[in-house]
């Protein structure tokens, strides 16, 4: 094969192509990225958290022992339930057991009133690993203790034993070591795995979570800020409970800590696929008479992120500890919605209000779900009419689809909206899937003048609580398990460019089925002055291309990162070597492999 990369012919491409799609699915937030170790800390789990209701899933979930739930004079009206423990022991097993590390400190906090109580961290065989005794008042008071674990265990529980009658609520345990040591922070190992992807943006809080099932389940950002006890928990569309401990402030702060652009996505005034609300009303969208208030919520979010501290919402951000603006540039309106009349009416109203008040904000519209045999025409029609700068496309397909559709964006009209490929994945976590994605991404880079951002979806999945496969990173309470697909994302994330260099591939084989299984993308990164060549081989045989990079430079210490394996492999990991690169050189690409060559360019 002959590959020629032409340094003279280049085009500007997006420098923020890869980022992450964070959705609170698969216990990605509570029991996941959010570092809280106590499950149902607020006693607000409800039978209605589960579709069709589940009696076992109630205010006592994850707790055991002798206590009763009371609602009289709660800590906060938004958290009506609390537990009353009378000369008894209650315990919480966290999310499938609490993982603790020897000699590490944990911040315990609680709202309590009544008699003295002792809190203990205990192993599964009953050893006490840490303990503290606290004496509350007769009225609600937030109390704290630092607990240092004497052992490393994966399945501890927290016990509270009371000397008399004690009321407790917001029972919380956080590792002191969170990502960037933030209070109310994120699990360090998971956040670091995300940081290692070098995401240029983070989309949150979903997916379907953003628009919910039914208008009463639409995600409301205002419910997720402020003191933890004042946040309004919610049923998660994926059939569990959202404590909202990981809320909009924490999302913005995470983006800032990552150096990634925040991309919040808000419902377009309609729930998932304009789902019927059930019951008499059968509402498929927020009633028009309530839309003014909803539109104001969207505008207020921009003020919360960017407004000065003299504004109503900017002041709330400052009170939360961030007087400087978060510099929000993007906002998504709608998620994979059915393009119905109900949708369109509300979507246009929101988009126009944002365009009018905040013309500098880049609005990302939606063009509905993509399936084989359907197209995005209707959604694109509205986007063009609204002159949207960007639209969100989603597709989950077979690896074969990704191999066969590398030209998906080649014919996109460059004068219309840019694309945010907000969700995509090939159906599986085998190496073949990862390779199909790597190949497809060479086409995304080639079309980086029309595709601005792309995010694999979903990002996180807790073992035993996974509702959707495949995902990018699996985890349990103490381990992070990146998939092979993760390493493809990482290699793209760590090797972005802002100029795409024209290239040609000539293969000796004339069979197109063979040819399309070899992919090349060459980019230049202005910040580092590097030339980056990505090569993908989805063939069962090695290919040794002759590569010409005339006038782009030479290097005797270029890095050569190889990810290779068999199609069914799930354990492939990138291996980095050094290599010499001349203006004309050849390098064997092993069967089923993805290689990245990186060197200083002229
Ligand atoms: O990523 C999982 C789901 O797929 C998202 O919530 C939704 O937008 C899409 O259908």
TrEMBL record:
Alpha-L-arabinofuranosidase C-terminal domain mapped to chain residues: 422-593
Originating species: Flavobacterium cheongpyeongense
Keyword vocabulary terms for this entry: Hydrolase, Signal
Family of this protein: Belongs to the glycosyl hydrolase 51 family.
Name used for this protein in its record: non-reducing end alpha-L-arabinofuranosidase
Molecular function GO labels: alpha-L-arabinofuranosidase activity
A biological process from GO: L-arabinose metabolic process
Stretch of the intact protein here: 232 to 833 of 842
Entry keyword Signal: yes
EC number: 3.2.1.55
Keyword Hydrolase recorded: yes
The protein's enzyme class: hydrolase
Coiled-coil parts of chain: none
Reaction(s) this enzyme catalyzes, per UniProt: Hydrolysis of terminal non-reducing alpha-L-arabinofuranoside residues in alpha-L-arabinosides
């Amino acid at each position: 094969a002959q590959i020629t990369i032409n340094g003279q012919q280049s085009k500007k491409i997006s420098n923020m192509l890869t980022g992450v799609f964070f959705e609170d699915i698969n216990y990605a937030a509570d029991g996941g990225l959010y570092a809280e170790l106590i499950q149902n800390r607020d006693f607000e789990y409800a039978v209605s958290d589960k579709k069709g209701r589940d009696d076992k899933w109630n205010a006592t979930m994850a707790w055991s022992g002798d206590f009763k739930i009371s609602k009289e004079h709660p800590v906060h009206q938004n958290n009506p339930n609390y537990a009353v423990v009378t000369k008894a022991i209650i315990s919480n097993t966290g999310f499938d057991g609490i993982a603790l590390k020897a000699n590490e400190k944990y911040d315990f906090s609680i709202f309590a009133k009544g008699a003295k109580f002792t809190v203990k961290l205990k192993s599964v065989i009953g050893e006490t690993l840490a303990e503290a005794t606290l004496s509350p008042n007769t009225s609600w008071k937030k109390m704290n203790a630092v607990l240092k674990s004497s052992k490393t265990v994966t399945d501890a529980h927290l016990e509270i034993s009371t000397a008399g009658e004690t009321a407790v609520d917001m029972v919380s345990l956080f590792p002191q070591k969170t990502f960037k040591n933030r209070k109310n922070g994120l699990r360090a190992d998971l956040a670091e795995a995300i940081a290692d992807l070098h995401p240029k943006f983070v989309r949150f809080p979903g997916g379907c979570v953003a628009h919910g099932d039914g208008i009463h389940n639409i995600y409301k950002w205002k419910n997720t800020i402020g003191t933890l006890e004042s946040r309004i928990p919610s049923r998660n569309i994926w059939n569990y409970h959202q404590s909202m401990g990981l809320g909009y402030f924490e999302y913005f702060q995470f983006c800032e800590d990552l150096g990634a652009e925040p991309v919040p996505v808000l419902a377009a005034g309609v729930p998932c696929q304009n789902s019927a609300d059930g019951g008499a009303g059968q509402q498929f969208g927020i009633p028009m008479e309530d839309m003014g208030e909803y539109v104001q919520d969207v505008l207020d979010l921009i003020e919360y992120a960017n407004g000065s501290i003299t504004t109503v919402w900017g002041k709330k951000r400052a009170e939360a500890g961030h007087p400087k603006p978060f510099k929000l540039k993007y906002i998504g309106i709608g998620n994979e919605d059915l393009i119905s009349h109900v949708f369109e009416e509300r979507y246009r109203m929101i988009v126009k209000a944002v365009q009018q008040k905040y013309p500098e904000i880049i609005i990302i519209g939606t063009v509905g779900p993509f399936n084989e045999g359907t197209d995005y025409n209707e959604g694109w029609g509205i986007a063009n009419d609204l002159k949207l700068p960007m639209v969100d496309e989603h597709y989950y397909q077979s690896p074969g689809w990704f191999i066969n559709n590398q030209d998906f964006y080649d014919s996109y009209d460059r004068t219309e909206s840019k694309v945010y490929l907000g969700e995509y994945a090939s159906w599986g976590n085998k190496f073949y899937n990862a390779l199909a994605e790597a190949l497809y991404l060479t086409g995304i880079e080639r079309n980086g003048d029309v595709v601005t951002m792309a995010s694999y979806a979903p990002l996180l999945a807790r073992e035993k609580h996974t509702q959707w496969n495949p995902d990018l990173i699996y985890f349990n309470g103490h381990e992070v398990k990146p998939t092979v697909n993760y390493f493809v994302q990482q290699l793209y994330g760590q090797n972005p460019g802002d100029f795409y260099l024209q290239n040609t591939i000539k293969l000796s084989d004339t069979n197109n089925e063979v040819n399309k299984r070899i992919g090349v993308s060459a980019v230049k990164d202005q910040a580092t002055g590097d030339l980056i060549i990505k090569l993908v081989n989805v063939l069962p045989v090695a290919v040794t291309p002759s590569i010409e990079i005339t006038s782009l430079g030479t290097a005797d210490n270029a890095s050569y990162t190889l990810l290779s394996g068999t199609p069914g492999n799930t354990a492939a990991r990138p291996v980095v070597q050094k290599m010499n690169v001349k203006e004309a050189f050849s390098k064997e690409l092993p069967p089923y492999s993805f290689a990245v060559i990186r060197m200083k360019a002229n």
